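User: quick one - fold this with SAJ bound?
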Amino acid sequence: MSFETISVIGLGYIGLPTAAMFASRKKKVIGIDVNQHAVDTINQGKIHIVEPDLDMIVSAAVSEGYLKASTTPEAADAFLIAVPTPFLPCEEGEVPAPDLSYIEAASKAIATVLKKGDLVILESTSPVGATEQMAAWLAEARSDLTFPQTHGDNADVNVAHCPERVLPGHVVRELIENDRVIGGMSARCSERSVELYKTFVLGECVVTNARTAEMAKLTENSSRDVQIAFANELSIICDKLDINVWELIALANRHPRVNILQPGPGVGGHCIAVDPWFIVSKTPKEAQIIHTARKVNDGKPEWVINKVKLAITEFLQANPDKTAKEVTVACYGLAFKPDIDDLRESPAMLITQKIAEMHSGRVIAVEPNIESIPEKLKHVELVDFDISAKEADVHVMLVDHQEFTKYKVTQGLIVDSKGVWK
Ligand code: SAJ
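Assistant: Sure. C-alpha cells for the protein plus SAJ:
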C-alpha cells in the first residue's frame, strides 16, 4: 500500500522542512500544529522559522495544493510526530528528566483518526523506551486496532522511531542527503518506514529496532557534547598554565589520530545541551562521563563571566579616576553558534544577560544576524562593530561569526572565549 496522504505533527524546525520535502515530491501533506499563528503563516505559503531555501519550497508546495496546515488532525496513511521533548522542571544540581507530554498529546490527537494500515513514526529526539510508550498510548486510545507490541508484523498499525539528524542552517540538504536510522517496532514497521522515507531521502535508510534508534540519536549528540567538554576543560587548564589553547589544539590536531573540537563559552541549542540528559536520567550510575561533560559545558558560561569581572577590575585598577559605572562592556555575538540568528538556549545570551545584571555601567552587544535586541536584554544596546570597537573598555568575544573574524579590536581589554582575536 503506498502513502498518498502524510501527516506531520509539530511544524517546527524539523516538522515543517520534513512536511515540505514530502509535499515537494507531490505527496498530499497535512501539517498539524497547536500554534495558530504557525498554521496561518504556512497556509499563506510563508514560514515562521529561519532556514535557508525552506521558504521557496513551502511557498511552492502550498500554492500547488500539496501542503496545508491545520490545528486539528485529519486521516492520513502515515503520521510523523516531530514535537518537542524538553525537560521537566527540576532543582539546580538535579538531573533533569524528559517531558514526554507533547508526544502523549500528539499520540492521543492522532489516535482519533488512525485506521488499519497506517504507519506512525516518532521523529522527536526521545529517551530510550519512548516509542514503546507512544505505541502504548495509541493502543490504549484505540482498542479496536492492533499494534506491534502485541501483534508484531501482523499489527493493524505500524510504529517506528526515525530520529532526525539534520544541522540547523543546512536542514534542506541534510534531510535529503543524510543516512537515516530506521527503528521499527517490528520488521514490517521498519520496511514500511524505509518505503516512506525513500520518497525524498537519497541517503541510506539503515534498519534497526526502536530502542537502538532512540539511543543512536542520543549517542551522536552526547558524543559531540563530550568532545566539546574536553576542549572546554583544556581551555580552563591552559588558562591556568598560561598556554594559548587555540595554538595547543592546532598543534595536537596535527597528530593523524587526534581531532580535538573548539572550546567556547558553553554549549547551546536545543539538542546537544539537552539530549545527553536523557541518557543520564535513565542510567545515572552508569553515565559518568556523559554526566561530567554536561557539567563541564554548563559551567563554562560562569567561568567566562568571572573572566569579565576580572577584566573590569583590571581596567579600574589601570584607570583609578574611573568608577565601574563609567566602564563600557561590549559582548560580541548572541546566537547559540556562528552565522545563524537562533538565540534559543544560547550561552552567549546567558552571559550577556548576567553581565548586564551584575555590571553598573553600560553594556552593549554586537550581533549582525538580528535586527532588534531581545526582550531579555532590554537594558543592553545593540550596536555596530565600529561603535563597540571605539567605545568599549572590555570586549567579550562570545560567537565566532564570520563578520568578527574580519575585524580586530585595537583598544581596551579582551576576554576572548572563541580565540578569534587570539
Ligand atoms: N560547539 C562548540 N565547539 C565546537 C562545536 C560546537 O563549542 O567545536 C558548540 C556550538 O557553538 C553550539 C553547540 O556546540 O553552542 C552545538 O552546536 P553544533 O553545531 O555542534 O550542533 P547543533 O546543536 O546545531 O546540531 C546538532 C547536530 N548533531 C551533531 O553534530 C552530532 C545535528 O546533526 C543534530 O541533528 C542536531 O544537533 C539535533 O537536532 O539533534
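One thing worth noting: The chain has a mean pLDDT of 96.
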